[in-house]
């Protein structure tokens, strides 16, 4: 798991749960300019809790940008690759914002709260970049771009027991909240935006709290209710291995300004059939039709040594790509990795390996994701 350096010597920003994390014995680290819990116990235990029971994450470092006004939908259709004006009220959409050359500036989730009211959720390391791009692209649109990151806290309750834990604490009928939906409800007596979204490959909910000061009370209520179901707090390390098993890209690893959505295997998010122009359209249209010089694949190690970011991928001893993310998989019991390899290669092209500190470790090339939950 990596995050770009903030480039300054400023002290990291703190979430409303700083004291709560310290009380629980969390290891706190500077992540994308925020002081965040890396782990509370062990990464494996927290990871396994999400797969088998449930875990609770503090994600208050994510950026929240509000887009409002009569042309909010038009602005987002122009500024992003997705068809956001087609999103129904109460629904969410995974999308991306790119530069003119088609390179990814960030991957995002956009919630439509009302006809002219959207909430854009950006990765912490890219929140300022996304804010600047949306502000610049809003010229000529009757829409307001408002950074509300400081106003929000964000909790994620993830795992097969998530709905059972949340149900007694909310006024929502959780059976009626579909995947990628988000509605205003109450949780532990506080008004929230309650979304059925996540970054773990499991069922679960993300809870947007405004004001952020409500987070400690809601956190405690969830942990108390969830104790009987095995709920534990979890940190960024477990979140990273969970998203890797689920084949979900991480900005700075699988996504960057040098990579188009098509190279990352995310071409489906680019909507050429929406009306009007959008930033990056011409470059992305060309990228969609050309043979991609590289493609994203999954690797499963045959041994015990773990491929890590930037290590070379070999085919019959020749360098054919590089690892973007790698870790031991607690669920599969094997090392796994995502990697970019030459676009024309197939899994049957030869014997694949990763150069792990000077020694080739054989791997199998597989389709992503590595893990998919039973629906």
Automatic annotation (TrEMBL):
Residue stretches making up the GCVT N-terminal domain: 18-274
Keywords noted in UniProt: Aminotransferase, Methyltransferase, Transferase
Gene3D superfamilies assigned: Aminomethyltransferase beta-barrel domains (3.30.70.1400), Aminomethyltransferase fragment (4.10.1250.10), Probable tRNA modification gtpase trme, domain 1 (3.30.1360.120)
The keyword Transferase belongs to this UniProt entry's keyword annotation: yes
Catalytic activity: N(6)-[(R)-S(8)-aminomethyldihydrolipoyl]-L-lysyl-[protein] + (6S)-5,6,7,8-tetrahydrofolate = N(6)-[(R)-dihydrolipoyl]-L-lysyl-[protein] + (6R)-5,10-methylene-5,6,7,8-tetrahydrofolate + NH4(+)
GO cellular component, one term: cytosol
GO biological process, one term: methylation
EC number: 2.1.2.10
Chain segments annotated as coiled-coil in the UniProt record: none
Positions of substrate binding: 206
Gene Ontology molecular-function annotations: aminomethyltransferase activity; methyltransferase activity; transaminase activity
Stretches assigned to the Aminomethyltransferase C-terminal domain: 294-372
Family: Belongs to the GcvT family.
Subunit annotation: The glycine cleavage system is composed of four proteins: P, T, L and H.
Function: The glycine cleavage system catalyzes the degradation of glycine.
Protein name: Aminomethyltransferase
Gene: gcvT
């Amino acid at each position: 798991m990596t995050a770009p350096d903030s480039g300054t010597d400023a002290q990291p920003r703190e979430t409303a749960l700083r004291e709560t994390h310290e009380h629980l014995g969390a290891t706190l680290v500077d992540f994308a300019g925020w002081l965040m819990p890396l782990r509370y116990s062990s990464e494996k235990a927290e990871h396994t809790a999400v797969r088998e029971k449930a875990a609770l994450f503090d994600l208050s470092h994510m950026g929240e940008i509000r887009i409002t006004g009569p042309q909010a939908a038009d602005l987002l259709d122009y500024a992003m690759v997705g068809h956001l004006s087609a999103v129904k009220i109460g629904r969410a959409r995974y999308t991306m914002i790119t530069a003119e050359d088609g390179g990814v500036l960030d991957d995002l989730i956009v919630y439509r709260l009302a006809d002219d009211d959207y909430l854009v959720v950006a990765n912490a390391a890219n929140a300022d970049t996304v804010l600047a791009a949306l502000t610049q692209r809003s010229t000529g649109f009757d829409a307001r771009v408002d950074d509300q990151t400081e106003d929000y806290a964000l909790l994620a309750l993830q795992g097969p027991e998530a709905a059972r834990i949340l149900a007694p604490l909310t006024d929502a009928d959780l059976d009626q909240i579909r995947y990628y939906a988000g509605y205003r409800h109450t949780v532990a007596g506080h008004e929230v935006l309650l979304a059925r979204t996540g970054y773990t490959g499991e069922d679960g909910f993300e809870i947007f709290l405004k004001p952020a000061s409500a987070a400690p009370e809601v956190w405690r209520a969830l942990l108390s209710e969830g104790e009987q179901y095995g709920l534990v707090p979890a940190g960024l390390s477990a979140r990273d291995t969970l998203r890797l098993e689920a084949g979900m890209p991480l900005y700075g690893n699988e996504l960057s300004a040098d990579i188009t959505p098509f190279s990352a295997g995310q071409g489906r998010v680019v909507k050429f059939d929406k009306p009007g122009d959008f930033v990056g359209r011409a470059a992305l249209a060309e990228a969609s039709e050309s043979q991609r010089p590289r493609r994203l694949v999954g690797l499963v190690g045959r041994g015990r040594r773990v491929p890590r970011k930037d290590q070379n991928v070999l085919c019959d001893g020749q360098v054919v790509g590089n690892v973007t993310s790698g870790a031991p998989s607690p669920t599969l019991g094997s090392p796994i990795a995502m990697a970019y390899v030459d676009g024309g290669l197939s899994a049957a092209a030869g014997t694949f390996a990763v150069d792990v500190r000077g020694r080739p470790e054989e791997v199998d090339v597989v389709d992503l994701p590595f893990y998919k939950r039973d629906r």
